[in-house]
Amino acid sequence: MHLDVLELRAFYATPLGSVARRVIAGHIRRLWGRVPGETIVGIGYAPPYIGGYRAEAARIVALMPAAQGALVWPLATTVNAVMVEEQSLPLPDNSIDRIVVVHCLELSEHARPMMRELWRVLAPEGRLLLVVPNRHSVWSRREATPFGHGQPYSRSQLQKLLAESMFTPVSWSSALHVPPVNRAFAIRRAGFLERLGSRYWPGLAGVHIVEATKEVHGVIPAGAGARRIGRLATADGSVNRTSPAKAPSTGDLRPRQ
Predict the structure, then answer these.
(1) Domains along the chain with CATH numbers
(2) What is the β-pairing status of strands 207-214 and 122-133?
(3) pTM
């Protein structure tokens, strides 16, 4: 079962959540560099990681699972967050250049159907990036953080899931070697602990970060239409049930000419 979106937002407002965002976002930026003119989709709770691309991407959308709930995001401009069923995405085939999946795969009750949906919507030359709790880490055993919920994965389990879903891994990395505690001594030394852990204990990192491409010889499965649910939480925590988010149309997701 997914965590509530308000719990996820509250975690990233803590010092430890800020460290997690900075460390993981740094890994993503080093992998992808700049992505001018591309279409980026985040699935799960991705705003902390895709927000930094808003100034350069042609289109950027946060798809938030219905079981999790959705936030109005971003607050200052046009809403780019949509509530979806992760196994039935409201996106055209081969339409997305980059997909980030975070706080989703380990919590989903439909992991394999969701992976097939990701294959369907990813462009032939696109990139999929999964951020998934490492089952061998301390982070996966502490429910005080979002990375301690759901089903963590080993690297071999992720490799098997990707192969079954017709994805080919192109890079593996790990992050979150800092201990999962909101203590000042750990927060102040987060950079040092991250460098130390990545050098000497990479297998104990809090999350796997794997980038993959789709195997284009696969057959696109027939999928049912997505069901939208009108429940968005605003920044002050209130819930709007009367104004459902509008799913992006095909035109919304294609770069402007």
Answers:
(1) 5-216 (3.40.50.150)
(2) antiparallel
(3) 0.83
